[in-house]
Amino acid sequence: MxxxxxxxxxxxxxxxxxxxxxxxGATAVIDVPETAPVxxxxxxxxxxxxxxxxxxxxxxxxxxxxxxxxxTGAKTHGNAADAHRLPPLDHALTGGFTFAGQPVQVIxxxxxxxxxxxxxxxxxxxxxTGDSLMSAGCGRLFEGTPAQMHDSLQRxxxxxxxxxxCSGHEYTASNIRFALTLEPANTALILRSExxxxxxxxxxxxxxxxxxxxxxxxxxxxxxxxxIRASLNLGTAPDATVFAEIRSxxxxx
Length: 253
Known about the structure:
Elements: E1 4-10, E2 14-20, E3 27-30, H1 35-45, E4 51-53, H2 59-62, H3 65-72, E5 75-79, E6 91-93, E7 97-99, E8 102-108, E9 117-121, E10 126-130, E11 133-134, E12 137-138, H4 146-157, E13 164-167, H5 172-182, H6 187-201, E14 209-210, H7 211-217, H8 226-232, H9 239-251
Helix pairs in contact: 1-3, 4-9, 5-6
């Protein structure tokens, strides 16, 4: 089944995503930082919004939801365990569901927040990861532990490498600058840095991106890299220890 994916810039550096099924007309938005850009894109394409999927409770991912529900009547989907700090949920999720006749897997990815979830559509090869796995990086640990985030990212890294990763922010250039301090000889990372610079110079988003690219260039998925371990003086440390040190260094980068 072919779905149409649209990336919508919001606020200063956030993204919302529309997923549309041409056969049924079903349309979902993943996270709503603000209402106006989402409504404008729906109107431009003459799509009717049916669903709102929420990755986590931070305002820059859901502040636009009440007005969008009022304007469209779309049904909200979010983590049942986090319902107390999300907008009212029509579907409090404890597992997967279906959209336009195809399965949507709900993956628990605590770390950035404890109730953070990701949405994976296997048939469409799409994953919406919010502020868990991000383009060339990962979210700050506002609530969870390094071990929790490391485990969460390992779950996402195990998805098929051709999966398109749709994350929540335009942080790629900064993330790559940091990654190069740990792995300056990584050819794939150097080439990605050049591509990202060209995209930003043209005013284009750097997301979404294939998981295969993240596996080659995202230091938070590369805790087994000999170059990264040498940079950190952690040659034989457990992967989770390497991850924690990378996250600590990124926090002060």
